[in-house]
Amino acid sequence: MKRKIITLPRSKHGEPRRIQINSIARSSLLRLRERGDGIGYVCPGYETSRKRDWRHCFSDAVEKAQLSDFRWHDLRHTFASRLVMAAVPLRAVQVLMGHKCIETTLRYSHLGETELHKAVERLTAKSTDTTTNTGQSWASNAQAAASA
Length: 148
Prior knowledge:
By secondary structure, this protein is mainly α.
């Protein structure tokens, strides 16, 4: 955990997986470990023969937070979407999500209207000397389009 990496010995694909975590996740996990009994599991009930499934820990937290219609899988969509909205390259999002295909990453990452509006507004941020096939500068074309 010192390097902000969690290593899973076996992922759902049967391979080991290294998961990068940020400083907030690390801090939260360290606090949970301090509250624990020294066994090392974040969710209680694992100390013997894994009597409790992690899903119970999650559903208990959802119930305690009084959330409705919220599933574990929703967190993966939120994670991917927030990374994309933070301008993280799609290839990095793919690796962080553990996806083998970029198409899967695209299905998970969703952009809101605000993000799409920000994207097109970037074109107005500063003028460049880029010309179009008509020979006019980008700024001239933009002004002409705006007045039309």
